[in-house]
Amino acid sequence: MRVAAALLPGAIARLPVAGREVFLTFDDGPHPEATPWVLDELKQHGAKATFFCLGKNAAENPELLTRIRREGHAVGHHTWDHPNGWKTTNSAYLANVVRGQQAVGGNLFRPPYGRIGPLQARSVGKLFPIVLWDVLAGDFRPGADGLLVARLRAAEYASRKHYRVPRQPKKL
Ligand SMILES: [Zn+2]
What is the Cα–Cα distance from 150 to 49, expressed in whole angstroms? Predict the structure, then answer.
């Protein structure tokens, strides 16, 4: 996904860290099955993460959004219902982002699929820091059961348990 980051020079894909740290992020929740499972796994590993939530899912599962925050994780927003920016008009995209943010709260924004047009990125970037990623776990692929756990364990090893919640970056 370095391509997406290269196309969006203002976006955040990596943050400087002091030691061997990783920033874990989970997208598209809160989901009634996946999110409690992820939260339980994180708790077991003493890890904190950032959840980029969809407005629609937050509206349907408000208690899960509350649980994410109560357990010390950070929350970012991820549009209302996951439009592909490349296939959406700029005004419709911006409206979708704003609606999502109102439902989820938080400041950090992650564009679905990393697909956001340059004009969309400019308008959204004036409102919220845009956060991408540099490693994709691929746990959304069919048959990827268990992969997420493996990645979490690898991250735990690599980072020597130095997980942390990213600070809200200053406005870009
Ligand atoms: Zn997504």
Answer: 16
Distance 26 CA to ligand 1 centre (A): 9
What pLDDT digit, counting tens, does each position of 48-58 carry?
Answer: 999 999 999 99
Q: What spacing in Å lies between the alpha carbon of 113 and ligand 1's midpoint?
A: 6
Q: 81, 56 in Cβ contact below 8 A?
A: yes
Dist. CA 160 → ligand 1 center (Å): 28
Which domains, ranges and CATH numbers included, belong to the chain? 2-15+40-159 (3.20.20.370)
Query: Can you tell me the distance from the alpha carbon of 39 to that of 64, in angstroms, rounded to the nearest whole number?
Result: 10
Q: Which residues of 1-21 are buried (b: 16+ CB within 10 A; e: fewer)?
A: eeebbeebeebbbeeeeeeeb
Residues with Cβ–ion distance below 5 A, ligand 1: 27-28, 112
Distance 70 CA to ligand 1 centre (A): 22
- pTM for the whole structure: 0.78
Structure tokens at 54: 């969809």
Q: What is the pLDDT of residues 92-125, one digit of tens each?
A: 999 999 999 999 999 999 999 999 999 999 999 9
